[in-house]
């Protein structure tokens, strides 16, 4: 791709004059995105760099980005993360922390969208890794050009642009970049996929071919989402934070559509970024054939005659707290006559005992225990879903039907 075409790519991928954040690590891809956006102009632009605290060079790299931003006249902020405990998947933990930090940063500055520097090569590597895991349509559709998460629109305008094209763009401007040493570390699956992809290119299985597959899978995914949404309109019901699915309806639906509805309900109720593992979901559905309830992925799934109720698992929210005006458990917005010393916490057993009319609410006991309560110290102020309103209301930010498409 001629480097002059990047302006038209950005016009399509980051349209309009609305304020835009751009995540910049100092690597070639994100640095090219920063410079191309600054050259294009026409919008309020602010850059952000996350220092994960995993390498001593990270602070210097953040300063390197800050210097380039100063030269370009672009505001810049550095965010720090010190949450790595040395256990689990390092890359995934860092990724989740990075998205969370950047989302908080953007919302605090009134920025509703953030651009990321993922390229066609990243897309191809993602498809290859997911092929190795036996992924289906959703997994093989890989990264979307626009994704809504954490209250932010994440834009990936360079998914049709190669890594080599961006390096050529930087060379033309005599701009250097930072090579992360982890890009050569074969302990990481992505680096191994990058090496394998280079070896597959002579067979025609290159970045362009895999990215084209991702595009076709994304189109198939949209079709399945529409079908799932149509089916949900007939067999699903949202009940004050719970989702109820008709068992006969699930049995009559194609297996893939039934699976999508179950996964979407679990993700929505749990505010989960990922779906439960396929084997765990299958095991839970088998258990429900002989038991009245099962827990999965932070949810309590209960068999009620000819329907399933997916509710939040009380134990999963027992230690979650938030201030009024901020989302509780990722999806509840609680508003009311705040005096300034209230905290949002799960209603719990103690809170439910302070709600004498909770049975009139018509929700199961377990659902109410896991619902949001307004507390002042250890005193319950309000429980909007349990019949103790006291001027307070609780609503979910996004309805289940909307989540079927956004997920």
From TrEMBL:
GO terms for molecular function: ATP binding; tRNA(Ile)-lysidine synthase activity. Signal peptide: none annotated. It comes from the Bacteria. GO terms for biological process: tRNA modification. The keyword Transport does not apply. InterPro entries: Rossmann-like_a/b/a_fold, TilS/TtcA_N, tRNA_Ile_lys_synt, tRNA_Ile_lys_synt_N. It catalyses: cytidine(34) in tRNA(Ile2) + L-lysine + ATP = lysidine(34) in tRNA(Ile2) + AMP + diphosphate + H(+). Keywords: ATP-binding, Cytoplasm, Ligase, Nucleotide-binding, tRNA processing. Its main location: cytoplasm. Gene3D superfamilies: HUPs (3.40.50.620). Its EC number is 6.3.4.19. It is found in: Cytoplasm. The N-terminal region contains the highly conserved SGGXDS motif, predicted to be a P-loop motif involved in ATP binding. PANTHER family: TRNA(ILE)-LYSIDINE SYNTHASE-RELATED (PTHR43033). Belongs to the tRNA(Ile)-lysidine synthase family. This is tRNA(Ile)-lysidine synthase. It comes from Rhodovulum bhavnagarense.
